[in-house]
Amino acid sequence: MTAKVFIDGEAGTTGLQIRARLERRRDLTLLRLADDARKDAAARAEMLNAAQVSILCLPDAAAREAVALIENPDARVIDASSAHRTHADWVYGLPEYDTGQVRRIAEAKRMTNPGCYALTSVALLHPLIAGGLIPADHPITINAVSGYSGGGKPLIARFEDKQAPDRIEAGIQVYGLGLEHKHVPEIQAHAGLTQRPLFVPSVGRYRQGMIVQIPLHLGALPSKPGARDLHAALARHYQGQRFVTVAPLAETLAMTHLEPELLNGTNELRLMVCANQEAGHAVLIGLVDNLGKGASGQAVQNLNLMLGLPEAAGLE
Fold first, then answer.
1. Which CATH superfamily is domain 3-113+295-306 in?
2. Among residues 51, 116, 230, 249, which one is catalytic?
3. 165 with 108: CB under 8 angstroms?
4. Per-residue pLDDT tens for 225-284?
5. Nearest alpha-carbon partner for 164 in 151, 177, 174, 176
6. Catalytic annotation on 57?
7. In what order do the strands lie in the sheet with 198-204?
8. For the domain bounded by 116-294, which CATH number is listed?
9. Closest by CA position to 264, among listed 211, 200, 302
10. What is the pTM for the complete model shown?
11. Which run of H or E residues covers position 129?
12. Whole-angstrom Cα distance, residue 137 to residue 195?
């Protein structure tokens, strides 16, 4: 018997990507609404209660409304919005977070899928803070650039539609200059930071792919770690992981540039430590497909764990 899965919001950017990864699988049955019933609360409630797992690809308020429609105590949820990412009763959907996270996800009734910027930042910071190399109260700055697909259909149209009245012509645009990006509370909570990180995102004129950078003055850290210490802690934490890899230090120390689209079409998150060791400067870097491990691929990985299916099913 196949598992029943419902994608609420399948017409959006993330929903379309998830559906494409699931619709050809024989171990799942996708429950779908007719186009004219997608905003019908009664029809949605029926699907949400009939599915073993529902994946919410909705704005935050709509995601909360969807959860409120569920009455079946056995119905399980993966929420791809940011509505529940710091909620104590929801499991954080990063299987590689620590040794117990896969079990927590597998047993979860309510699971929140990480944000793309946050997943990458947390993956870099959490092992180093938990291991004492970076103090929890250290002031952290995060710079990032994403492809425009991360902004959903409205932002895609501003880059791709030549007739759009608010078309973006620039090659890159810095945004979130009020420093209130919705991923900041998620990063702080799950990285283990006691103070708010300073996060400056930007969007480039390319469809998908993301680079997150966290610069560090190594001499300002109490333990005075070197690049090798940072790399060793990350490599130890993610040893044996299939979807989170740490690039060899010799490779990253020799790097002169990095392209954000290198992992597009994969479910991989690649972590790196670049450094000027004489100056005592380092930068932690995460490279990811913001629609893969950063969104829809991560949701499929979590779905597989929740249903007891091979973790990589649909992600090869």
1. NAD(P)-binding Rossmann-like Domain (3.40.50.720)
2. 116
3. no
4. 999 999 999 999 999 999 999 999 999 999 999 999 999 999 999 999 999 989 999 999
5. 151
6. no
7. 172-174, 198-204, 141-147, 210-217, 281-288, 269-276, 244-246
8. 3.30.360.10
9. 211
10. 0.94
11. helix 116-130
12. 6
